[in-house]
Amino acid sequence: MKMSHGFSSCKLLFSSLGRSLPSLLGAALGMLGSAIASSATPSASEYRALGLQYRQQGQLPEAIAAFEQAVALEPENLDGRVLLGWTQHLAGQEVAAAETLRAAWLRQPGAVPVLNALGIVYLVQGELRSAVWTHTWAACLAPDNEIAWYNLALAFHRVGTHDLAIAAAERAAALEPTNPHPRWIQALALWDRGDRPAAQALIQETLDLAPQFGDRAFLQEDLQAAAFSPEQIQALDRLILSP
Q1: pTM for the whole thing?
Q2: What is the pLDDT of residues 92-112, one digit of tens each?
Q3: CA distance 202 to 120
Q4: Pick from 222, 190, 194: which is nearest to 205 by CA?
């Protein structure tokens, strides 16, 4: 009788479990899924890598969103802020880019990559005084910083200080001899200063180095990407293609 009673109790228990088994399994799987989701939350470095991947694919809104997540997770990481600010700049969000990079600069005023990026954003926005100050500070901190000298040359030419533009362009060209961009801005500054034979000689020398600039479409697209202003591009177009 006892064995029969025990068997009946076990049968009742398994019968009860059988009815509730789907809900128990569902709850267990839900808990497991939550645990997996929690452990699989991307880190800041993973968001930065994802943002770079999106940016390389030209998906700038998605890249910005990923970099924003990275900054939220690691506010002190300057690389993340520079990546965010520069991608905002690439997307044409110049005001947001300047705000992001200024915030990064305030956290570490001596960070040369931050100064480089912020100075370029200022230059593109036409805030030439801020661009000159920022790139001058970057060049003082890192005298071999070609980016700072090159962008100083662009800014100095735009404000009409041609001697300074020539000096900065010469320094940038010495640091990166195969880059034609400092040579182009130096040629413009020489021309505008009135030293036209030297400008024409430098133009021909640079065309020998980079003959692709003899194509108008290439010249305009490349110089725009290199932070030349529309006026500077038009002037070079005339000097190179309509001498």
Answers
A1: 0.79
A2: 999 999 999 999 999 999 999
A3: 25
A4: 190
